[in-house]
Specification:
The structure is a homodimer. Chain A contains five helices and five strands, in the order ααααββββαβ. Helices cover about 40% and strands about 20% of the residues of chain A. Chain A binds a DNA duplex through α2 and α4.
Chain lengths: ~140, ~140
DNA sequence: AAATCTGATGCAAAAGCTTCTCATCTATTG
DNA sequence: CAATAGATGAGAAGCTTTTGCATCAGATTT
């Protein structure tokens, strides 16, 4: 399927910048990229694009459900393609490494806790912070 | 017990600004305050203090284990006094309301998940994002 | 296929949060 | 009470993200 359809379905015009961003995210669907990363990677690939456009498009894609935004520690957002299957994250507070996981027991408890606290279960996400044991821990990126 | 001791134990000089900040946090230990909130509240109380000092001191208190910093959605940090008892948070993505909870089942699963992913359990925290049903939801603050 | 219209882009400026610089000041120690 | 090591405040600067605006490009109609 051509990516343009997903963009069109979101009520957005199928433009060059949007296609480039979506394709880049598809090529890196195992990573969590910052707007700045997307910008740099596209520039390095020889594409011409403005950083403001990246921010605008990523937000539009988020609203459209095409991508997910996460605000881990660090004061910036990271984005990943919405691959349909729900998952949570465990983030290393030292080096920023991100691992994904799902846990049925926790999913159940989440529903109960949300209900008990008067929260609507649906648009939810869970992030666990810890410290990884990687020998090269202390850098950054995920 | 005088609060000064806690500050001294942390290897910091017991100064006016530090006392003021710590006492303010103690008076508002049911809230999650931003640096800006602490600043405004102290100014309104007639105290003279600089915003840079608030940021510095809060970070020092965090390192010393006196306060906890949380990076919920929104792109800024909130702080609360470390009251000793561990708890997690559920945050409304619409209005920013924050509720605290603890769940033994989830605590157990956290340990297992951290272990399975090669993360050290210890310095950890868990944040659940949802949407609350408050009738006056859509404002901000927590 | 040209004209038209609506929306998208890029740049630069600006906003919001946080950190840094540095001169001055103050808590602690001898 | 002098000396010293550390703390403070004000403003500048840094970093991420948003916004204003003139230009440009899809989409639609003729």
């Amino acid at each position: 399927m051509s990516e343009g359809e997903e963009i069109r379905k979101a009520g957005l015009k199928v433009t060059g910048p949007r296609m480039k961003i979506l394709m880049l995210l598809e090529k890196n669907d195992n990573q969590h990229l910052r707007a700045e990363d997307v910008y740099r990677m596209l520039l390095e690939a020889g594409e011409e694009i403005g950083l403001a456009t990246i921010y605008r498009v990523l937000t539009q894609f988020e609203v459209a459900g095409l991508v997910e935004r996460h605000n881990f520690e660090g004061g910036y957002s990271v984005f990943e393609l919405n691959r349909g299957h729900h998952h949570d994250h465990i983030v290393c507070v030292s080096c920023g490494k991100v691992e994904e996981f799902t846990d049925d027991t926790i999913e159940e408890r989440q529903k109960a806790i949300a209900r008990e606290n008067g929260f609507e279960f649906g648009d939810h996400s869970l992030t666990l912070y810890g410290r990884c044991r990687d020998k090269n821990c202390s850098g950054r990126k995920g």
